[in-house]
């Protein structure tokens, strides 16, 4: 998902990146038994070195090369505390701006400066928590838990090319390979089938139900986000799923935000990281947009082409995420991040409320684009998606075949690299420099940003609020480029310099 909602913090001690993490860093947008604390013998038996699951071939996992910082500098600590304190108010600010100021992000600041409003008056005008919203959200989350836990995937049996059902994840730092029930696409299909069945036949609730309870739902999602984050924090100390997959610092706030456990689980199948990364936030994404479209129809008697574009382009991204959910098991969210407030609260609150700002804006300011403008936005979104998807496909093809494939009709070129792991062993790897990976080192991010810009441009140029998404994504992905390449340079040394000489640009050929 865009897992992509947090900030990456400075670390005073960075472990070398394993091959699996390196590939996951480059993957872009995207997220059977559990070994418990009482099963150290089994865990030890399964702890073996594994082959790479990324760009490089023939690499092995080094148990010391994983996770986040052991030590935290003062800059990181200050950043963590500020984010914990301010992030919920950033979300509230955008929701409040639409609810009270017609989506203006400057007018509330002007009113505060001039004395026309106070923080307390703005807070008091905001809709408060309601038990009706709590009931809606409790039913929603419970329904997604049922779909995730108790309905095994069958879609992979009749959808060609789709990989679902029980799948192995990447090897954890402790050397374990968790199994996952990949059924997100099935959950999305069932959820939306019921949504449309209700809208056009059963009429159990109004399709505008999400918009009508938007701010009260914000309080409900915050309650769940903080409850989940606190639970896994306490769980890591008292009953971790696997103690060897935990990482502690001496800082309470950093542990709470970035997480301690790598893959916290309850029982055999409920994996906190996979569930909250994909459900309930991303499944809800398209439902939220549909509710906004229904509200636009209710208020103005029509759904504008800009609202249709936002619904279609963002639904394409959501479907891509669930179609590639098994591949998502090998990305940075699963292979590298621990599960804490950063993922728990972020997936419950940040993602559904800030990634849907375009649809929310269009309820308050319906925009009917000209045919030419609508076609241009659609083309930009589709080209961006194509670049993003094909870039990742080329990398995956190269990885799976060890380079014995064709990219753009010819045998791929690559750079042979070597690195030394912490155990003193030398390993070899291949870095792809053909196809899209020869145009720029992170062209998948470029495609991602093109799609993000299309969402925003669908809203016209009347307000800044719908453009928050592209501003945020640009900062996030540029910083991720720099962070990833710093780690890769530390790992590969001179070979990484050879690679950057062969592919000199990060995102935009000729510019950056």
From TrEMBL:
Compartments it resides in: Endoplasmic reticulum membrane
Entry's transmembrane regions: 74-95, 129-151, 185-205, 217-238, 339-357, 369-388, 452-478
Catalyzed chemical reaction(s): cholesterol + NADP(+) = 7-dehydrocholesterol + NADPH + H(+); 7-dehydrodesmosterol + NADPH + H(+) = desmosterol + NADP(+)
Keyword Glycosyltransferase in annotation: no
Membrane topology, as annotated: Multi-pass membrane protein
Pfam family, one: ERG4_ERG24
InterPro entries with a match to the protein in the record: ERG24_DHCR-like, Sterol_reductase_CS
GO biological process, one term: cholesterol biosynthetic process
Cited function: Catalyzes the last step of the cholesterol synthesis pathway, which transforms cholesta-5,7-dien-3beta-ol (7-dehydrocholesterol,7-DHC) into cholesterol by reducing the C7-C8 double bond of its sterol core. Can also metabolize cholesta-5,7,24-trien-3beta-ol (7-dehydrodemosterol, 7-DHD) to desmosterol, which is then metabolized by the Delta(24)-sterol reductase (DHCR24) to cholesterol.
Protein name per the record: 7-dehydrocholesterol reductase
The organism of origin for this protein: Megalops atlanticus
